[in-house]
Amino acid sequence: MKRLIAPALIGLLIQLPVMADTLITSDNLTKLEILLPKLTALENNKQVRFNQNVTLQPHCNWQQQYTDLKAQQPDSASVAQAEQLIQQNGFKTEQFLELSAKVSWPMLDAVMPMMQMSQQAAVFMPADQRKKLQQSFNKSNRYYKTVGGCLTNEDKQALAQHKQRIMQLATDMSGLAGTSGMDFNQLMKMSNTN
Question: How far apart are CA 79 and CA 48, in angstroms?
Fold first, then answer.
């Protein structure tokens, strides 16, 4: 009898749908849409900048990424307020960072060709502007490669499934794309005309 049950259970388990291993779900996107205006309001009143100038290390350990980002923030009281908002909206801080980064990736992917063209045109700029542009590009490129390298197949499928919603979210949180020194919305308009 035991021999018959084991194959039957294995067959049943094989037929069960596997839960996606991704944070990019409709529910999480809804929570993120609710959370972002709250964080923006906090940022407008404080010095914490979780949505701007994010520097990621080249790994996919989001807990460590968050710890490193937190260490870069000058105002620990504001960080605590941001963490409280993040947690009140149903995320662990590292989940928020991972989801935010992954949601910003399609937008950065869309503007990368324009950024590369800007980098090529930099040879005609004064040295100080060229240096700033190169630093901005290098930072954006590192961010792009890090987040892109952390995207799982499930993440990629979810990004495709929720593309329009994610593009709007990414526009709303454009500081995450790491395009400091460049007008992100202007880059998006330029990339959409091509």
Answer: 6
